[in-house]
Amino acid sequence: MTPQEQIFALFAGIVGILTVATITGQVLQRRQHDAQSNPVIENLNARINSWWAMVILVGIAFICGKTGVIVLFAVLSFAALREFVTLTYTRPADHWALLIAFFAVLPLQYFLIWDEWYGLYTVLIPVYAFLFMPIISILRRDPQRFLERVTEMQWGLMICVFCLSHVPALLTLDIPGYEGRHLLLIAFLIGIVQMSDVLQYIWGKLFGRHKIAPAVSPSKTIEGFAGGVLSATVLGSGLWWITPFNPWQAACLAFVITLMGFLGGLVMSAIKRDRGVKDWGSIIEGHGGILDRLDSVVFAAPIFFHMVRYWWTV
Amino acid sequence: MTQILAALFTNVIILLTRMTTAVQAHWIGCGPDPVQRIYYANHASHGDFVLIWTVLPPAYRKKTRPVAGADYWLTGPIRSFVAINIFRSVLIDRQKFQRGSDPISLMSNAIDAGASLILFPEGTRNTTDTLLLPFKSGVYHLARKCPEIELVPVWLANLNRVLPKGEIIPVPLLCTVTFGTPLKLQPDETKIDFLARARKALLSISPEASMENETSK
Q: Which domains does chain B have, with CATH numbers?
């Protein structure tokens, strides 16, 4: 198969899965005889509808190629950072630092990825933003809760911009024998991490008995975690044909990214708990905010990127 | 020509507002019904009424006019154009001793002409650490002049962080607009009682207030 045919086959598979999910959701909805609506089924259907929207959006970006994917992730970073900063403590003195984070650091990071300048996009936020953002903040001479303000801002940039930008950064990797097929690597990463989330949700809803960390995330169960991670690993191994990996390697990588995704979800849940909110936002019907959908991708992307870069590039 | 330009500007402003704030409306005390109303809100930024305006249904938006200070908005041609042609503000003079025209009549005339109003009873932008400044008495006098119009408390959350006083470029942050239960002036209600009741109704829908309720439970 040519790369185009592979992408097409993959999207056809996703559309097939979503069609089955939509039909199942509608059947469950119809079976509710009483006038009372079931919030779980309503949320399920809202989620499925939003999945359609997200898949179509990613599909359009894929058709537009490298630039389309980079623009898509820059916009996602913007929306994610907007959600993140909303929950942090800021003071009027941080205004310029925040403007620079949104309108200078973020576009520059994605430009460097488009420019494939690995040496700079790897250090832009961890080194340069890390040092210069607090400098910009302190120019306004407001020391109140300063460490808290600058660390939260840096965390927001790391999570929402630096980590997330490692998804399109996969396009810059030079993998022998894999030329012209990099979009499939992104599809593999996003597909496995998202399927793992969905599978954890399904396993948890069907068999979940023992809560894994009730104080952090009341909905996560041991059964959901184990079932989700293992079935996503099997799925990842089955998708080896779209990657530069053999089935065994694909399974290992899928295992690592689903594990990172799960742990990332826990970390991000802890932040939400601490700030007293259930979701990061409400932009995606049924799912919450952008960060609610991308928390696991954020934690998996840089690790996946560096594993592929270390073992598969020249 | 001016109308086309104003319509274009309106849509650009609403688009930019949504991109910056992803504003969400919470109609908890009433719905977005096509009723003539006086919306009164907390005031922290010049973007305040744009936010309320953005979440109103488009047909109704055209009939809703903000009440703003003439002393600020009539300084300079761009501000005047924005205030008069785009927002169709009811511009009142805040300087007590040099009022050319009575601000209450200006507002009630607009209501008689069928408009809904957005007003900020604190009188000025709140830059203090307190949630809400004491109300000026204008809202009481207006309620007495138009007793049949319902007053809707509107809480704007986070916009003070998006555009703090003195800043020009907004920082993108999520904002919410919460609409509370409408109230009307009671026949025998005194000025002090009414202002206290209206202020309390507004405070009760602020996220800060609901957070306090939760911790005290």
A: 2-216 (3.40.1130.10)
Q: Which residues of A touch B164 (CB under 8 A)?
A: 92, 95
The whole-angstrom distance between B172's CA and the closest CA on chain A is: 6
- B80: exposed, middle or buried (Cβ count in 10 Å: 0-12, 13-18, 19+): middle
pLDDT tens, B55-70? 999 888 889 999 988 8
Query: Which residue from A262, A208, A257 is spatially nearest to A237, judged by alpha carbons?
Result: A257
Which sign does the torsion angle of CA A118, A123, A125, A126 carry?
positive
- B129, B171, B208: which to substitute to probe chain A, counting the most A Cβ within 10 Å? B171
DSSP string, chain A: --HHHHHHHHHHHHHHHHHHHHHHHHHHHHH--SSS--HHHHHHHHHHHHHHHHHHHHHHHHHTHHHHHHHHHHHHHHHHHHHHHHTS---GGGHHHHHHIIIIIHHHHHHHHHTT-HHHHTTIIIIIIHHHHHHHHHTT---TTHHHHHHHHHHHHIIIIIIGGGTGGGGG---TT-TT-HHHHHHHHHHHHHHHHHHHHHHHHHH--SBS-TTT-TT-BHHHHHHHHHHHHHHHHHTGGGSSS-HHHHHHHHHHHHHHHHHHHHHHHHHHHHHT-SSS-SSBTTTBSHHHHHHHHHHHHHHHHHHHHHHH--
Whether chain B has a CB inside 8 Å of the CB on A98: the answer is yes
- CA dist., res. A246 & res. A311, Å (int): 13
CA A224 to chain CA centroid, nearest Å: 19
Predicted local distance difference test score (pLDDT) of residue B97? 52
Q: Which of B169, B174, B211 lies nearest to residue A86, judging by beta carbons? A: B174
Q: Are A283 and A292 within 8 A, CB to CB?
A: no
Tell me the mean pLDDT in the region A184-211. 94
Per-residue model confidence as pLDDT tens digits over B151-204: 999 999 999 899 888 888 999 999 999 999 999 999 889 999 999 999 999 999
Q: Tell me the ipTM for this assembly.
A: 0.86
Question: What integer is the mean pLDDT of B89-108?
Answer: 78
> What integer best gives the mean pLDDT of chain A?
93
